[in-house]
Amino acid sequence: MFARLLTLLVALLVAGGVAAQAVRKIPADAPKGRLTARQLPLVTIDGKEFRLAPGARIFNANNLSVTPNLVPAGTPVRYELDAQGMIRTVWIVDAVPGVERSGPQR
Question: For residue 21, which of 7, 13, 14, 84 sits 20 to 30 Å off, Cα-Cα?
C-alpha cells in the first residue's frame, strides 16, 4: 500500500514539473508588429490591414486562445500568415520576457 502511494506521489510530482515547463513554439521567422483589432475579420498590424483566416488563433502570454476583441489596441505580437496572406496565428508577446528577442529582428 505504501509503495503504491509513494509511486503515485512521485508520478504527480513529475507530471506537475512537466506541465510547468510548457514552452510556446513561435517560429523564428514570424514577423513582429503591434496589433489593433477592427471589425471582424479585420485587424491592423503596424498600420497595415490584414484579414484573419478562417480558424485563426490568437494566443495570449499563457498560451491560451483569446478573441480579437479582448486584445488591447497596440499590443505587441508575432504573427504567421497563410498562403493567401491572411493571418493564421497570432502570439501576444508583451508579457513574455525574451520572446521579443528570439529570431531575426524586423
Answer: 7
**pLDDT, tens digit (0-9, with 9 covering 90-100), for 80-94:** 999 999 999 999 997
Which pLDDT tens digit goes with each residue over 22-58?
688 899 999 999 999 999 999 999 999 999 999 999 9
**Half-sphere exposure (Cβ direction) of 42: Cα atoms closer than 13 Å:** 6
- Domains present along the chain, CATH in parentheses: 2-92 (2.40.50)
Contact 81, 90 (CB under 8 A): no
Sequence-distant (6+) residues with CB within 8 A of 21 are none
Nearest CA-CA partner of 81 in 104, 48, 103: 48
| Residue 94 C-alpha from the chain's centroid | 11
The alpha carbon of residue 1 and the mean position of all alpha carbons in its chain are separated, in whole angstroms, by 44
pLDDT tens per residue, range 29-38: 999 999 999 9
Taking Cα atoms as reference points, which of 62, 61, 39 lies closest to residue 50? 39
